[in-house]
Amino acid sequence: GILHEDLRLLLETSMPAKKKKALLGVADPKIGAAILEELGYQCQTGGVVAEILRGIRLHFHALVKGLTAQSASKAQLGLGHSYSRAKVKFNVNRVDNMIIQSISLLDQLDKDINTFSMRVREWYGYHFPELIKIVPENATYCRLAKFIGNRKELSEESLEALEEIVMDSAKAQAILEASRSSMGMDISPLDLINIESFSSRVISLSEYRRGLQEYLRSKMSQVAPSLSALIGEVVGARLISHAGSLTNLAKYPASTVQILGAEKALFRALKTRGNTPKYGLIFHSTFIGRAAAKNKGRISRYLANKCTIASRIDCFSEVPTSVFGDKLREQVEERLAFYETGEPPRKNLEVMKEAVAEASEVVAEVKRKMEKKEKKKKKREKRRLEALAAVAAEVEDAEENDTEPKRKKRKRQQEEAESEPELEQNGLEEEEEEEEEEALPRKKRKVAAEEAAAEEEEEEKEKKKKKKKKKAKDSGED
C-alpha cells in the first residue's frame, strides 16, 4: 500500500506536478495502483509497456553511460544475493526449517530403531527365545540383551539390576526363571560381543531420539506456540513439514488443512467418484480419536478451522504466545462436549476477546523481560569495554615506566660523556678560584656582602620613586 521512498523521490524529481495526466509505463499493476493513490500519476500496464520494459532491461548497459554489460550482470547477481539473504535472515529463533528437518529425522529414526530392534530380537532370540514374550518393548529388550549376555551366567545377584531395567519385580523374576529352563541354543563369546555392540548402538539411537523430541518441543514452542498448544508438537510439526513452511500453512484454507496428508485418497476418490477423505494428518490428534464415529467428520472440520487460525496467529504475530492456542483448544473441547451432551459452547467472539486481553498482558510481560535482558547485555558490554580499556592503560603505563629509566640512563650517560672534557679543562681554574676565596679574610667578605645589600636597597627606592611620578602624571592629565 505505501509507496517506497526511493521510488517516490525519483518520480517527484523526474516529473513535475503539472504533468499529472502523463502516462507512466509500469510492469506490475499493484505498483501502478500505489503510484496513482500516493502521487496521482496515471499508470499503464500490459501490452506495449511490457515489451518496452523488456527492451530497456536488455539494453540497459547501452542506455546508461559508464555502465558495461559485465557490471550490469554483476549488479543483478548482487541484488539477487541480497534479496535471497534478506529472505533467509528473518528471525533466528523463528526458523521453521529446523522443525521440518527434525520431524523428518524423527520419523526416519522411528523406522530405523524399529528395524534394528527386530534384528536384535531375531539375533538374540536364537540364544534366549523366551525373553521376547516376557519383554515386548524394543528399547527394554535391547537393554536386557546387552545386560544379560550369556543366559547361563544370570544369577540371583543380578536380580536388582534386572528390576532397574524392567521396572517390575515380577518380570525380573520371570526372566531369571526363564533363563534357567530356556530352550535356546548355546552361543559363542564372539557372537555375544557383536550382539552387545549392536544393542548398545540401538540404545544410543533411542536415547538420541528422546533428546531430539525434546528439541522439537522447545523449537515448536518458539516458532508455533499456538499450533502446538492446540494440536500437539508432533502433529503441528508434521503439518508444517507437509506444507513446506509455517507461512505456506498459514496461507492454506481450512479445507486444505483438513485433508493435508491424504492427497492420494482424495485424488483416488475424485477419480472413482467415491467419498472424499474426512481427515489427513490431523487424524493423529487426540480430539478425533475421542469423538464418536458419526461426529469424526464434523470435529475434524472444526479442528482444521482452529488449526488454520492458530497457524496464522503464529506466523504473523510479532511476539508469539500460546494463549490463543489454549483458548482454541478449550473451544474444541467444548465442541466435543456439545456433540456428546448437547451443552452449547461459548461464542467465538467472547473467547477471542478473552484471548486478546490475556495475550496483551503476556506480550507486555515478555517485552519487559526482553528490555531487561537488553539493558543487562549493554551493561555487561560496557563493563567489558571498561575492563579492556583499564588493562590497555595499565599496559601503556607499564611500558612508559620501563622506557623512562632507560631514557634517563641514556641522558645521564650522554651528559657525563659531554662534561668529561670540560671538567678536564676547567678543573685547574676552579681549583685556583677556591684557593683565592679561602685566602680572603672573613672581614673583607662581610664588607662585600653589606655593600651588595645597600646597592639593592637603593635600586628598589629608585623604582618606587619612578612609579609615584608616573601615577602623579596620569592623575594630572585626567
TrEMBL record:
It is found in: Nucleus, Nucleolus. Pfam families: Nop (PF01798). SMART domains: NOSIC. Residues 393-478 are annotated as: Disordered. The keyword Translocase does not apply. GO terms for cellular component: box C/D methylation guide snoRNP complex; small-subunit processome. One of its GO terms (molecular function) is snoRNA binding. PROSITE patterns: NOP. GO terms for biological process: ribosome biogenesis. Residues 416-438 have a biased composition (Acidic residues). Involved in the early to middle stages of 60S ribosomal subunit biogenesis. Required for the biogenesis of box C/D snoRNAs such U3, U8 and U14 snoRNAs. Part of the small subunit (SSU) processome, first precursor of the small eukaryotic ribosomal subunit. During the assembly of the SSU processome in the nucleolus, many ribosome biogenesis factors, an RNA chaperone and ribosomal proteins associate with the nascent pre-rRNA and work in concert to generate RNA folding, modifications, rearrangements and cleavage as well as targeted degradation of pre-ribosomal RNA by the RNA exosome. This is Nucleolar protein 56. It comes from Upupa epops. The lineage of its organism: Eukaryota, Metazoa, Chordata, Craniata, Vertebrata.
